[in-house]
Design brief:
Largest sheet: none
Organism: Ceuthmochares aereus
Number of helices: 7
GO cellular component, one term: mitochondrion
Number of strands: 0
Function: Chaperone protein involved in the assembly of the mitochondrial NADH:ubiquinone oxidoreductase complex (complex I). Participates in constructing the membrane arm of complex I.
Radius of gyration: 31 Å
Protein name: Complex I assembly factor TIMMDC1, mitochondrial
Structural class: mainly alpha
Subcellular location: Membrane
Length: about 230
């Protein structure tokens, strides 16, 4: 039962597949990697932005259309008319906001998963990763429209991915290091710390073993002298 405790710590992953598997693995404190958390945060932000983008214009249009159609209708009072117009706008806000929300969130999530996966697998952060991720996402979203849709999705995704990737790279450079560089540094520091702790435990074990061996030899010598 003590072997795993005193086993030599495993070095940081060197192959791309090992780094990809680690991307979805929790650490000792049950925390997900920062890249995975950022993907979830970006999905939520994109969903909220998509909802506002699709919902607010639909709210205003539905409210204006309700007012135009209801000139001949009777309401109990002005407040009742205003509330009815707002309810009509709210229904459109929820309906069309949801349509945009899940589409934008899905697009951004797929884009981030692919671009992050490429960066982790290749162990470098380049614009080509984002361009490839954008092209793949665009093709995936437009593949149901046939060859013309595939071509359009490929062009749109690439055009979207290049400036988005450039912006993300610039932001990471302004922070001093990219997420991949930060992850590699943390892996190296964590490995060096675990290695130092392992060597310390190993030294203590060797000292205790030597002490126990000396005590055993002394006991045997005493027994031999008594006999």
């Amino acid at each position: 039962g003590a072997r795993p405790l005193f086993g030599r710590p495993a070095p940081p992953p060197e192959s791309g597949w090992e780094r990809l598997r680690e991307l979805w693995r929790r650490d000792e404190r049950q925390r997900l990697p920062e890249e995975t958390v950022n993907i979830a945060k970006a999905a939520f932000t994109a969903g909220l932005a998509g909802w506002l983008y699709g919902g607010l214009p639909a709210f205003r249009q539905a409210r204006a259309s309700f007012i135009q159609r209801s000139h001949g209708e009777l309401f109990q009072n002005r407040a009742d008319a205003v509330q009815s117009a707002h309810r009509a706008g709210l229904r459109s806000f929820i309906r069309y906001g949801w349509r945009w929300s899940w589409r934008v969130a899905t697009f951004v999530t797929i884009f981030n998963v692919v671009s992050t996966g490429l960066s982790v697998y290749r162990n470098k952060n380049t614009i080509s990763n984002y361009a490839s991720a954008g092209a793949f996402t665009g093709v995936l979203f437009r593949m149901h429209l046939g060859l013309q849709g595939l071509a359009g999705g490929f062009v749109f995704g690439t055009v979207f991915g290049i400036p988005a990737g450039a912006l993300l790279i610039v932001m990471q450079n302004l922070a001093g290091e990219s997420l991949q560089e930060k992850r590699n540094r943390e892996r190296r520091e964590q490995y060096e710390q675990k290695l130092a702790e392992w060597q310390s435990r190993l030294s203590v074990t060797e000292v205790l073993g030597q002490t126990e061996s000396n005590a055993q030899e002394g006991l045997e010598t005493d027994r031999a002298g008594e006999s």
